[in-house]
């Protein structure tokens, strides 16, 4: 996961600093602009994911618990890897001292590894929920998800402590400091390969297998719904298929969204993983500054893009995100209504004009379209 140099040259380990950073104004301008843009979008988006799940009751599902863990891990990557990259690009040297080298590198790998584990966890959860729905009633619960997430963070926190003993400040021939390896590549290579297998290869292979099984189950359910039709005319077939699709729509929507998250995780990490894997074995590593910038931007984009996916593919997340912007105004309206109509209580699920109210305690966005009912 780090930029391995040759046995004679120890290049930086963390994803925020590249060896041989270009001193050109063009490189610095492009690097700072892209990193700040991606990191700002990612930080705001991931904070919103955490807030909407923690503050909205109906969003507290087992799957969303794993998404909160993923959002916190992505925030860690963006803050510990992305933001220090701005200083690195401007000065071409490490500016955070020995303690910063240890702490920032630790947090980078912690966020990266927790992201991978969280993706694996919600993939397994989706498989159980769809392929074993009876078992899911007792296995896929919020309390169990919290325990799994706690175990993931404890495991990765302990595992990543290894980096405290692998990195240190190094001074190059030009006098610039770098946060680099304390050990030679031959000693680091087994550690990297184990890390590469545990937090990239195995999660992706598991995701491929489980999503393949999920697709098979959903396809069989669709075929079963079609076969229940009384005739085989096109209109009857279409009606049966639509009925089955409506029944599975919720599972399909969530599963598609999470599958996209996994696919982007694989694609956006592939350039960096491939580069480091190749550099681990060649005598002269490939360390082009522009390509390294591309690899790092892909990593930061992976941590920033998930909230965009949720907003694009989930109606619940879109509504929850919009609710964050209107929260203060709605709370003020609720207090006003309570003052004007003391006989009325919380709003319940009640159909008005063909639409339903939100769960009790949540005020609709357009108050004029709804009516309150006595508690």
Strand content: under 5%
- CATH fold topology of the largest domain: Rhopdopsin 7-helix transmembrane proteins
Question: Tally the helices: what do you get?
Answer: 10
Give a quick account of the main beta sheet: strands, pairing sense, barrel closure: 2 strands, antiparallel
Along the chain, the helix and strand elements come as HHHHHEEHHHHHEE
Low confidence ranges: 1-13, 16-21, 336-375
Give the number of domains.
2
Work out the number of β strands: 4
For the record, give the distance between the C-alpha atoms at the N and C termini, rounded to a whole number. 57 Å
List keywords for this structure.
disordered C terminus, 10 helices, 2 domains, mainly alpha, 375 residues, 4% strand, Rhopdopsin 7-helix transmembrane proteins, two-stranded antiparallel ribbon
Topology:
Layout: H1 25-55, H2 62-91, H3 97-131, H4 133-139, H5 142-159, E1 167-171, E2 177-181, H6 185-227, H7 234-247, H8 249-279, H9 289-313, H10 315-340, E3 351-352, E4 355-356
Antiparallel strand pairs: 1-2, 3-4
Main location: membrane
GO molecular function: thyrotropin-releasing hormone receptor activity
Keywords: G-protein coupled receptor, Membrane, Receptor, Transducer, Transmembrane, Transmembrane helix
How does this structure look, described?
InterPro entries: GPCR_Rhodpsn, GPCR_Rhodpsn_7TM, TRH_rcpt_1. Its main location: membrane. The chain is mainly α. The protein has two domains: 25-327, Rhopdopsin 7-helix transmembrane proteins; 341-375, no CATH class. Helix content is 69%, strand content 4%. It contains ten helices and four strands, in the order αααααββαααααββ. Strands 1-2 form a two-stranded antiparallel ribbon. Strands 3-4 form a two-stranded antiparallel ribbon. The radius of gyration is 25 Å and the shape is globular.
């Amino acid at each position: 996961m780090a930029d391995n140099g040759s046995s004679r040259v120890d290049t930086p380990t963390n994803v925020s600093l590249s060896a041989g950073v270009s001193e050109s104004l063009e490189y610095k301008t492009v690097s700072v602009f892209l990193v700040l843009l991606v990191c700002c979008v990612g930080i705001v988006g991931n904070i919103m994911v955490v807030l909407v799940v923690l503050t909205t009751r109906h969003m507290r599902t087992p799957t969303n618990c794993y998404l909160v863990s993923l959002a916190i891990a992505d925030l860690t990557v963006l803050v510990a890897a992305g933001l220090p990259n701005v200083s690195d690009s401007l000065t071409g040297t490490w500016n955070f001292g020995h303690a910063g080298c240890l702490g920032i590198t630790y947090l980078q790998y912690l966020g990266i590894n927790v992201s991978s584990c969280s993706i694996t966890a919600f993939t397994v959860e989706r498989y159980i929920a769809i392929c074993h729905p009876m078992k899911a009633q007792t296995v896929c619960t919020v309390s169990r998800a919290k325990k799994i997430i706690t175990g993931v963070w404890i495991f990765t926190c302990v595992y990543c402590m290894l980096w405290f003993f692998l990195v240190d400040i190094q001074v190059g021939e030009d006098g610039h400091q770098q946060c680099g390896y304390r050990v030679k590549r031959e000693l680091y290579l087994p550690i990297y390969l184990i890390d590469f297998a545990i937090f990239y290869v195995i999660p992706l292979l598991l995701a491929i297998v489980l999503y393949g099984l999920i697709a098979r189950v959903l396809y069989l359910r669709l075929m079963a719904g079609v076969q229940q039709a009384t005739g085989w005319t096109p209109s009857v077939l279409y009606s049966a298929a639509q009925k089955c699709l409506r029944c599975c729509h919720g599972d399909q929507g969530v599963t598609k969204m999470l599958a996209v998250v996994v696919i982007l995780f694989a694609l956006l990490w592939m350039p960096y993983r491939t580069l480091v894997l190749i550099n681990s074995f060649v005598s002269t590593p490939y360390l082009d500054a522009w390509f390294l910038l591309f690899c790092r931007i892909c990593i930061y984009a992976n941590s920033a893009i998930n909230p965009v996916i949720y907003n694009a593919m989930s109606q619940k997340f879109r509504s929850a995100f919009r609710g964050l912007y209107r929260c203060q105004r709605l709370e003020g309206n609720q207090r006003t209504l309570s003052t004007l109509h003391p006989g009325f209580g919380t709003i319940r699920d009640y159909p008005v004009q063909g639409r339903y109210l939100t769960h009790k305690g949540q005020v609709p966005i357009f108050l004029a379209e709804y009516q309150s009912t006595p508690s």
